[in-house]
Automatic annotation (TrEMBL):
Keywords: Flavoprotein, FMN, Oxidoreductase. InterPro entries: FAD-dep_OxRdtase_2_FAD-bd, FAD-oxidoreductase_2, FAD/NAD-bd_sf, G3P_DH_GlpB_su. This is Glycerol-3-phosphate dehydrogenase subunit GlpB. Residues 6-409 form the FAD-dependent oxidoreductase 2 FAD-binding domain. GO terms for cellular component: glycerol-3-phosphate dehydrogenase (FAD) complex. GO terms for molecular function: glycerol-3-phosphate dehydrogenase (quinone) activity. SUPFAM superfamilies: FAD/NAD(P)-binding domain. Its EC number is 1.1.5.3. Gene3D superfamilies: FAD/NAD(P)-binding domain (3.50.50.60). It is an enzyme of class 1 (oxidoreductase).
Amino acid sequence: MAITDDVLVIGGGLAGITAALSAAEYDTQVRLISYKQSTLRHASGLIDVLGYTPDGQGPLANPFDTLEELPVGHPYERVGTDAVRDALLFFDAVTDDAYAGGHTDANALVPTSSGAVKPTARYPAGVESGLASDPRDTLLVGFERLPEFNAPLAAAHLEATGVPFDVRGVTLDFPGIRRDDAKVIRYAHILDHDERVDIGRGETVARPVLAALVSDHLDGESRVGFPPVLGDDNHDVVRRDLEERLGVDVFEVPSGPPSLPGLRLEDLLYDALEEAGVRVTTGVEVVDYDSSNGHIDHAVVDRTGQRVPYQADEYVLATGGLVGKGIDSERERVFEPLFDCHVEHAGDRYEWFDGDAFGDHPFARYGVSVDAELRPQKADGTVEFENLRAAGSVLGGYDFAAEKSGSGVSLATGFIAGVRAGEVGQ
């Protein structure tokens, strides 16, 4: 017997979660199936809409000035500018005060751990005091056993970009960390619980020790940036405690994986799924499907060797792109492996990439082509399946890494895919 729902979302990343949440707004029974860990835990936690044009112009001050100029087939062109705005408003409602940036259409300029300045539309509230548009002098703090953030190097790179403030970087010992392989969760846990630590003068608690270490290096700066390890469950408490002890604003500098801000966002969104009544099934893989007359009848899920049918009125494909294996390739073709949706690509595999490692690689834009309803299209432009929609990085027609548009596309297309599925499935 098939397990039945109104809407079945396949994929547990930002696009899939957004689709499930927006579909659930329509009084429908929604299920989300996720096989692998969400890519959110590897992301910076920033929500980029559009930082650069497809031809590399930018950074863009206001992404909405450019959205309507994007080429046909770009995911934003498919859903339209209003959908991008609606998706951001939806995200703001879900995340409440955990994120900032909703007061303006303009991109914020967020310093990153590499010392670059990234244009982004939404950012964790704990990042806000570090915006590069803020002229206050800044001290960056890194830790000896956390090589992901080299504070002096990041400070030098920031100065080279021409930021309107003086910035220095120092590297300190983190209280309570003695192992080089300690994970960022361990750093956060020590601060979350203000653990007792031994610094050679008897045991004391972590936050006052850390504040005292940093205070010795302050030289008139009015804000201090840390790597993103300032607590997890009690992140706001940790940050405010350090601010009170230091007498300056404290912020986190987004970094690459493993990403605590990404994990915080993942937890927040999965809590929202539970509150919305979405059924979440994890650790199982959709391996096949049955269809008739251009309509998916059911998806087949592998549950420890047992093939179980999952039936729904509407399906959303949000399995990721080339990195997440939502798009795959063989020597002669590029394809979407679950429903075998068409992926437009050059016939000669040597035309899939550029000879220059930093060149314009066509494969970066490979993905499923969709119509305005986000239904995947065949090579001749007809719809693959009437009740299937695609969202997120499984889509083609854009280079999310070059454009700095990955999160925005996931939000906008996930939101619209969920709305369309919810409207039909209710």
